[in-house]
Amino acid sequence: MDDSTNATGKNWWQRLTGGLRRTSASISGAIADLVTKRKLDEATIEELEEVLIRADLGIDTAGRVAAAIAEGRYNKTVTEDEVKDILATEVEKILAPVAAPLTIAPDAHPFVILVVGVNGSGKTTTIGKLAARLAREGRKVTLVAGDTFRAAATEQLKIWSQRTGASIVAGTQGADAAGLAYTGLEQAREQGADVLIVDTAGRLQNKAGLMSELDKIVRVMKKLDTTAPHAVLLVLDATVGQNAISQVTEFQKTAGVTGLVMTKLDGTARGGILVALAAKYRLPVHFIGVGEGVDDLAPFAARDFARAIAGLN
To answer: How far is the C-alpha of 157 from the C-alpha of 241, rounded, in Å?
Structure first.
């Protein structure tokens, strides 16, 4: 999915830096305090490492960045900008391999996207924004309101379908999500839709219940198309910090996640968690969200994110 205007345009850069301000401010402030007071010694390096761990970049990444800062600079005076440049460079190295656009395969009719994530992660809103992006690209979209445990999720998706011109398949509260997914795929085929996006419940009574429901949704869709789903997107809320790691682990097991979407980066000082996830799982990161607006979901660009998190203009 190409988005040269949003991904590289000035407006998107302003939204990204604004959205990551809390994260970059917490890192920048601590860096400034440390490097302006003394030369770079072992204690300073350790404190810099702790700053990065507190920002949720992860122990391995923090150690890697601290080592890069220390290299050839022991007992020397370093500037805040030098440290920020090194931080941005190292973070970009980690993120570049996972920054991958969501590619809609032209031979899939329709291309089926299963969207998973816990309640409150911004899953349904992300589906709406994604439908809007696809519609702008001229693609015909069908939505399935598969989170049948929350009436609000179905209502929200109906509003997005009206906004974006997407078709929607919805049932009553508590309806069988797998049955809706099957109907949705049938309808999408009949109507010549390019993309089918299936919402799912974020929480059942236990993990076994969640696994069973996701497995059933996949199983019934495969009766119509053995290659479906073509993408399984996990939506993560950046404000949960380290909890995002356990969510990736769980949903990898239950749903075979193929890519990540990180939302609510504007509401946290813990945006570094995306770096920790990239280092640990190496799953493609397709989109990030830095606000409530329809345009605040954009393709993930490693260099832009790394510079924004380091507080560089």
So the answer is: 27
Q: List the domain range (segments joined by +) for residue 246.
A: 111-304
Three-state DSSP at 56 gives coil
Q: Last residue of some domain: 42, 70, 98? A: 98
Number of independent structural domains in the chain: 2
- Number of neighbours of residue 63 by Cβ within 10 angstroms: 15
Rounded to the nearest angstrom, the gap between the alpha carbon of residue 202 and the centroid of all alpha carbons in its chain is: 16
In the listed set 98, 126, 144, which residue is the last one of a domain according to the structure? 98
The pTM score is 0.93
Shared domain for 206 and 81, answered yes or no, is no
Identify the CATH number of the domain in which residue 211 sits: 3.40.50.300
Over residues 237-253, the pLDDT tens digits come to: 999 989 999 999 989 98
Taking each continuous run of H as one helix and of E as one strand, the counts in the chain are 13, 8
Band (pLDDT 50/70/90 cuts) for residue 2 is very low
Q: Kindly give, in sequence order, each residue whose CB lies less than 8 Å from that of residue 223, ignoring residues fewer than 6 positions away.
A: 182
Q: Are residues 57 and 121 in the same domain?
A: no
Q: Is residue 171 part of a domain?
A: yes
292 touches 267 (CB < 8 A)? no
Residue whose token pair is 């799982």: 281
71: enclosing H helix or E strand: none
Residue 235 to residue 129: CA distance in whole angstroms:
13
Neighbour count for residue 269 (Cβ, 10 Å): 19
Q: Which sign, positive or negative, has the C-alpha torsion 292, 207, 252, 168?
A: negative
Mean pLDDT for the stretch of residues 255-279: 92
DSSP character string of 211-260: HHHHHHHHHHHHHH-TT--SEEEEEEEGGGTTHHHHHHHHHHHHH---EE
Classify residue 161: in a domain, yes or no.
yes
